[in-house]
Write a structure and sequence with these properties.
Elements: E1 5-11, H1 18-27, E2 35-41, E3 46-52, H2 55-58, H3 61-66, E4 71-77, E5 92-96, E6 99-106, H4 112-121, H5 131-141, H6 147-154, E7 163-167, E8 172-176, E9 185-189, E10 192-196, H7 200-205, E11 208-212, E12 217-222, E13 225-231, E14 239-240, H8 242-247, E15 253-254, E16 257-258, H9 259-273, E17 280-283, H10 289-299, E18 307-309, H11 322-332, E19 333-335, H12 337-340, E20 345-349, H13 356-367, E21 373-377, H14 399-402, H15 405-412, E22 416-419, H16 422-429, E23 436-437, H17 439-442
Parallel strand pairs: 14-23, 17-20, 20-21, 21-22
Antiparallel strand pairs: 1-4, 1-10, 2-3, 2-4, 5-6, 6-7, 7-8, 8-12, 9-10, 9-11, 12-13, 15-16, 18-19
This protein binds iron/sulfur cluster.
């Protein structure tokens, strides 16, 4: 499963910021691996570079040196709306009556058809197939003699998930949608300011975390400093609960909670809710590791690294052919056979989507000699697609949509299977000052979706 994107932006007077943006994007690589890009302004002109590939493949020292300036925004993309191609990579650059506008977007809009129709009526055409271009065009076409006004006016019709970074020649804007579906944080850096999808990026570049933007908040940074120019929180906020389960890095802070702690709590609660006898607790690395440690602490079952993950193999999830995907799992995970022979194990992971990867892993563990294999999943069954920026697009992709627990257990060939309840998932996160989107677990979404 993949998140749509990672955003990073910086405003640091008298500094060259391209190198810092590169490190910021690198720390957000887990949020998008299809393409990467950054736009940098020196106050007079804006330069942009974007390509398909990982951050380290897209940029080199020459390119970074050529991107001169003290304000920048960067973007890592994993496409959930629009195809995976250079044309859809970000940031998006447009010319408007106020000058150049550059925009980077994380999330998915749900009223794309209507917005596109209204732009067609204004004789607008599109060069990409992503919803992010629609946002840029709406801002470009909006009333207002300043960027502040144009941005506020241009966003009024949007419905769905959008965290945005917007760059003009001398201002940097940060936006969170009124429901607060995707995260966005503010930090201080060396006399300037940084924004990122996840606060964990700040530690990597030596910035200090200041706050998470509130749902519906728009901030601007320019020569006058940083300030909030709009507070437009929806009556019901709906933060994506999956950010806690899988997407965000464990060292990220979301709604004042450390993600690592919530995953540890989930593992502890899972051990209480669905106890099992086993010689060892092992994680599916890396997504299940924090929960597996919590499970082990609570149950007293020793945690071992029974499965090792290759850091250097590409993703398996999007490989279109089943055969290749199967091979991918084998290339990606290696069991520590000597440890597992004739042992009963409990295996902890964050979630199950199709079930194909998990079935492959159970097979690998059996071959390595594990006797009994019990699966414990640190989130509830995924029964519904996501329309708000995550690539769970169809019901048919979800094994838990049409299958009972018994059927899934048999399909995966495990000895037992149990999911964390929704109640316990919320308990693991604890009291936070926001509502949640639970759409993929309940089929009920925070916004009306035209399926
Ligand atoms: S449907 Fe699921 S993945 Fe999508 S935003 Fe809601 S909680 Fe997150």
């Amino acid at each position: 499963m993949h998140e749509s994107c990672g955003l990073f932006g910086i405003y640091a007077p008298k500094k060259e910021v391209a190198q810092i943006t590169y490190f910021g994007l690198h720390s957000l690589q887990h949020r998008g691996q299809e393409s990467s890009g950054m736009a940098v302004s020196d106050g007079k002109k804006i330069k942009i570079h974007k390509q398909m590939g990982l951050v380290t493949q897209v940029f080199n020292s020459q390119i970074i040196k050529s991107l001169k300036g003290y304000i920048s925004i960067g973007h890592n993309r994993y496409g959930t709306c629009g195809s995976s191609s250079l044309i859809n990579s970000q940031p998006i650059m447009l010319t408007t009556n106020l000058g150049t506008l550059v925009l980077a977007h994380n999330g998915n809009l749900i009223n794309v058809k209507n917005l596109k129709k209204s732009l067609y009526l204004k004789k607008e055409s599109f060069t990409t197939t992503s919803d992010s271009e629609i946002i840029a065009k709406l801002i470009a076409k909006a009333d207002g003699r300043s960027w502040e006004k144009k941005i506020i006016n241009g966003l009024t019709e949007l419905k769905g998930a959008y965290s945005l970074l917007i760059l003009s020649k001398n201002q940097l804007f940060a936006v969170r949608d009124p429901w607060g579906i995707r995260p966005l944080a503010l930090g201080k850096y060396n006399g300037g300011y940084v924004f990122a999808s996840e606060s964990s990026s700040f530690g990597n570049i030596g910035a200090i975390f200041k706050k998470e933007l509130k749902p519906g908040e728009i901030m601007v940074v320019d020569k006058k400093g940083s300030r909030t120019i709009l507070k437009n929180q929806a009556s019901k906020t709906a933060f994506c609960i999956f950010e806690y389960i899988y997407f965000s890095r464990p060292d990220t802070i979301l709604n004042n909670q450390l993600v690592y702690q919530t995953r540890l709590n989930a593992g502890r609660l899972l051990a209480r809710q669905s106890p099992v006898k086993a010689d060892y607790a092992i994680a599916i690395p890396d997504s299940g590791t924090s929960a597996a440690i919590g499970f082990s602490q609570e149950s007293g079952i020793p945690f071992i690294e029974g499965l090792l993950k290759s850091r250097y193999i590409g993703r398996t999830f999007i490989q279109p052919e089943k055969k290749i995907r199967k091979l991918g799992v084998r290339l990606k995970f290696s069991p520590v056979g000597g440890l597992l022979r004739n042992k009963d194990i409990v295996v902890i992971d964050d979630s199950i989507v199709r079930g194909t990867t998990m079935k492959g892993l159970v097979g690998i563990l059996r071959k390595a000699g594990a006797k009994k294999i019990h699966l414990r999943i640190a989130s509830p069954p995924l029964v519904s697609p996501c329309y708000l920026g995550v690539d769970i697009e169809r019901y048919s992709e979800l094994i838990a949509y049409k299958h009972t627990l018994k059927q899934i257990t048999e399909a995966i060939k495990a000895d037992s299977l149990s999911y964390l309840s929704l109640k316990n998932l919320k308990k693991a996160i604890g009291r936070v000052n926001c509502g949640f989107c639970l759409g993929c677990f309940t089929g009920k979404y925070p916004l009306e979706i035209n399926k």
